[in-house]
Amino acid sequence: MGGCFSKPKPVELKIEVVLPEKERGKEELSASGKGSPLAYQGNGTARHFHAEERLPTPQPYPSPQDCVEATVCHVKDLENGQMREVELGWGKVLLVKDNGEFHALGHKCPHYGAPLVKGVLSRGRVRCPWHGACFNISTGDLEDFPGLDSLHKFQVKIEKEKVTVRASKQALQLQRRTKVMAKCISPSAGHSSGTNVLIVGAGAAGLVCAETLRQEGFSDRIVLCTLDRHLPYDRAKLSKSLDAQPEQLALRPKEFFRAYGIEMLTEAQVVTVDVRNKKAVFKDGFKLEYSKLLLAPGSSPKTLTCKGRDVENVFTIRTPEDANHVLRLARGRNAVVVGAGFLGMEVAAYLTEKAHSVSVVELEETPFRRFLGERVGRALMKMFENNHVKFYMQTEVLELRAQEGKLQEVVLKSSKVLRADVCVVGIGAVPATGFLRQSGISLDSRGFIPVNKMMQTNIPGVFAAGDAVTFPLAWRNNRKVNIPHWQMAHAQGRVAAQNMLAQEAEINTVPYLWTAMFGKSLRYAGYGEGFDDVIIQGDLEELKFVAFYTKGDEVIAVASMNYDPIVSKVAEVLASGRAIRKREVELFMLHSKYVCSAFPVDCSEPLLPPAQLSNPPTLPKSTPLLGTRL
């Protein structure tokens, strides 16, 4: 385990006043989502922060000289439900008119910088067109994930039917706001064996849980432990950008953890949990007591079981070091990827311009078949083939052959022999919950941790979140599911924190994921397992399409490429609790002069103008769809 608690030292804690975000003088992450120069440089050890590590000095309230004010439009220039980007000189603002009121917010999503003006406005919030994050238009607060930060909210005044916006110059440039948080004032933090909240796992679920506790005013001790050598980072980026460095992937810089009293234990493995005595035992024998526990251990990648599985240069990508090593070995050489799921295909796409050859081995007929269906899978496969990726489908790896201990060939059950200098294995994962088997915390037959809507396990005070849990999916009739998505882990972490504080929150987010390959993004919302039909609008060959996945009479998921913001609109409909019926989509597709690009949630407009239909159906008022004319 890292050195944080190996030799305990008293830690002097001071009560500090946390000023509002608008007073803070330094941004912690850049708008691109990469770490600032202050980002943590991982050295493999965990430790308390030293006294000489200073926080940025808070700035006073902005003076009039630090603000900019401009008249941006007439009150009649925007209709209700419309959004517009307006320029203030020092930066742009998103102007929103909703229910007769104007709101001014940051114009870019803090997650990846998507233009929110192209997003979806509904139910008092705007949803990002790229990845589905939602922001309250009255406060700017982040209401649904992914991402960690909120939007700045700016002053709006109406005089003589003119709309004027006043904003801080600094806020216009930063385009993100970290919510005000409490700081640790608990004297127990000076003792190494006790804590109030212990979080096992420092991925998205664990970090969001810690942040939510502080945002909700929790000022006792929080300890966040991880097997990794780095502070929390964006693991989802690893397979998309194999050259990324830890500091570029960092979700928060080290100063953030010090500022808010979130203690980190890196390279720390919990081996048992004693729920009766509320104690976690680490691999090195160190014991840590807790009052509340979050289990977010994530998953462990499956590995090959074939002959030669222990040869060198065969990887499962779990860390930045793994990704960097694969890239070094693949440059100008032969790469084999086993598994045509998201990780494998992202790695293959990234390596096409770096490696001499890229081959993909997959047991199914087409990539993504179970997830996206045959037709979409084949379209994506063709995109890869056009980029010189070679596929070996409906076969498995029989043997890995080495020369001097290093990988040289991959032998397939089809008898094909592939030259290989490096092999990446992406054949799925299993929950990393082996350490809980004797704990009394319930595990299902596959090793997942069952939780209820409040992310509670069968043990009082013990919560679980992230890739290792099954939970009731509200809009699929509370079906127990496992959804290992980056966005879902964020949402579960927040719900767990809220219920540690007895807020009785329930998980109700709509699953949302994305991938990027060859500069093209695929977006997906919903839960499509068990779909029995796929309705496709657009051109699969041109990779400009939307696919609706249905089961019986109901749309249960949607995927798209180059069709924004359709996935965010469907997600917003599903989040409202309204159903989309298969018949609606089918009728809609019959009218080619309409593009499936808008799903109003106000339910005031029909799917198609009745005059367009020879025998207009009675459409459910729960989810009308709107066609937008070309």
UniProtKB/TrEMBL annotation:
Rieske domain segment(s): 70-165
PROSITE patterns assigned to the protein according to its UniProt record, in alphabetical order: RIESKE
Subcellular location: Mitochondrion
Main location per the UniProt record: mitochondrion
InterPro entries on file: FAD-oxidoreductase/Apoptosis, FAD/NAD-bd_sf, FAD/NAD-binding_dom, FAD/NAD-linked_Rdtase_dimer_sf, Reductase_C, Rieske_2Fe-2S, Rieske_2Fe-2S_sf
GO biological process, one term: execution phase of apoptosis
Keywords in alphabetical order: 2Fe-2S, Apoptosis, Electron transport, FAD, Flavoprotein, Iron, Iron-sulfur, Metal-binding, Mitochondrion, Oxidoreductase, Transport
One Gene Ontology cellular component: mitochondrion
Molecular functions per Gene Ontology: 2 iron, 2 sulfur cluster binding; metal ion binding; oxidoreductase activity, acting on NAD(P)H
Sequence segments annotated as region (Disordered): 22-43
Pfam families found in the cross-reference section: Pyr_redox_2, Reductase_C, Rieske
Its job: Induces apoptosis through a caspase dependent pathway. Reduces mitochondrial membrane potential.
Family listed: Belongs to the FAD-dependent oxidoreductase family.
This protein's name: Apoptosis-inducing factor 3
Gene, per the UniProt record: Aifm3
